[in-house]
Predict the structure.
Amino acid sequence: MKPNPCETCGACCAMYPVSFPEEEITENSGLVPSDLTLSQKLSQRIMKGTQTANPRCIALQGCIGTRVRCSIYLDRPSACRNFIRSWEAGTGNYLCDRARSIYGLQPFSLY
């Protein structure tokens, strides 16, 4: 199996708010652990840690740019599932590349 480049990155998880519909939390029969989220606004939740001025998702473990993992990867919210990584499909993603650049990492779209 080919290694996932995100496992040596994690920049997007420490850059952007992770907001998603409230029905995705376990309290509402969803997958995302409720205790890792905060109520954001009507029918929306946000992953703890991503609502701050210096965001870092509570589920992100490890050192950005070296070795990281999502502690709830199989149960992650739709915002994470739907985030297009620059190395996928050769299309690039400005948000992915921007997060990597801020952490001093080469944008995936340049690979």
